[in-house]
Write a structure and sequence with these properties.
By secondary structure, the protein is mostly helical. About 40% of the residues lie in helices and about 0% in strands. The longest helix has 21 residues. The model has no long low-confidence stretch (mean pLDDT about 80).
């Protein structure tokens, strides 16, 4: 029984070593391991997790992104005085 377990362990180590040699992880110029493209895209496209919580005015927001989320997703907001789809132009989103 010990010989079988030892054989399995040695086989697993050999397989792991073989995979590392034949399929090395890509390395950047700085020596860091690159992330797979699917992870990189997810990181780039992720957005802050805002949620409608009753706030309706620009003075209650902390960023242009937050105000834009509220304008597009929450009912009863009062953040687009110009009616142009750009919220809080004086406080947060005026420098686009």
């Amino acid at each position: 029984m010990k010989k079988i377990l030892l054989g399995i362990v040695i086989g697993a180590l050999a397989l792991s070593a073989w995979q590392r040699v034949n399929h090395p992880e890509p390395v950047t110029e700085t020596g860091n391991v690159e992330q797979p493209a699917s992870l990189a895209v997810e990181t780039i496209t992720s957005t802050p997790s805002f949620h409608c919580d009753g706030r309706t005015r620009c003075t209650e927001m902390t960023s242009c992104e937050e105000a834009t989320f509220f304008l597009q997703n929450c009912p009863g907001v009062k953040m687009d005085g110009g009616g142009d789809g750009v919220p809080c132009e004086r406080q947060w989103c005026g420098h686009r």
